[in-house]
């Protein structure tokens, strides 16, 4: 008899305190811009799945926002969403940055995930930022936190050891038939990805003024023929909470809005591999973060 390698498939997610590098790592693994990264905490709102196909496994990555102290209804819903995602995954990667001391936040998350059915791998992220000596110390400190299935250091920025991490996580997935068709890299509706690209463009440069007050809704996407080529005509609304925020987003004489449109169009064009015509409107929805009806309408 020949050695038979069982096919494995399942769900994995990266958790960890804000800014630990979860989104960047997810992107590095899937190799496409599916989640939003920023150097400010808590920008990942939607649960985005990326699917990594390998000859003997299929790894489905779920990207979650970080848990945080809920101050609004949106905050509470996000935390519920995070816990629901954690409880559905086969492997949870607890991300701990190499350049920051293990702290109470990491221990709190570690304790919470140790109660789930999924296996837990500690991922020491951003190893490009520290010396070998400091990395060794961090690996020791992390290993002492909990009995992890494995502890893997890597850098999503340089790609160092990311393949090893994928191998470790894939080997911990349950034996299972393929769960998604070949070639599919995400089952997130395109609309959500497009909305995120617009939101990211709208936040560019004004995150300090409007950290969590922007939401984007895609109203319509039409495929049009123009000069012999097809293009996607996208109608989207950018929601802010107050008229003063609307002024910030639009900028003097519409200058910022122009930049937002240009950046978003470029990114969406790459995503859809198509010519894009973008119709953006900025609307004020008062206190949308506290209004259940509006939250539902905005997709939360
Ligand atoms: N040098 C270095 N920086 C990294 C690496 N991974 C992520 N970063 C940076 O760390 C910051 C946070 O990364 P994210 O991937 O957005 O972190 P996150 O954990 O998803 O953050 P939240 O969405 O806030 O929970 C960004 O500025 C990244 O560019 C890495 O491997 N090396």
From TrEMBL:
Residues 16-23 are annotated as: G1. It comes from the Bacteria. It is a peripheral membrane protein. Gene3D superfamilies: 3.30.300.20, P-loop containing nucleotide triphosphate hydrolases (3.40.50.300). Residues 206-286 form the KH type-2 domain. One of its GO terms (cellular component) is cytosol. Its main location: cytoplasm. Pfam families: KH_2, MMR_HSR1. InterPro entries: G_ERA_dom (IPR030388), GTP-bd (IPR006073), GTPase_Era-like (IPR005662), KH_dom-like_a/b (IPR015946), KH_dom_type_2 (IPR004044), KH_sf_prok-type (IPR009019), P-loop_NTPase (IPR027417), Small_GTP-bd (IPR005225). CDD domains: Era, KH-II_Era. Residues 125-128 are annotated as: G4. Residues 154-156 are annotated as: G5. An essential GTPase that binds both GDP and GTP, with rapid nucleotide exchange. Plays a role in 16S rRNA processing and 30S ribosomal subunit biogenesis and possibly also in cell cycle regulation and energy metabolism. PANTHER family: GTPASE ERA, GTPASE ERA, MITOCHONDRIAL. Belongs to the TRAFAC class TrmE-Era-EngA-EngB-Septin-like GTPase superfamily. Era GTPase family. HAMAP family: GTPase_Era. NCBIfam families: era, PRK00089.1, small_GTP. This is GTPase Era.
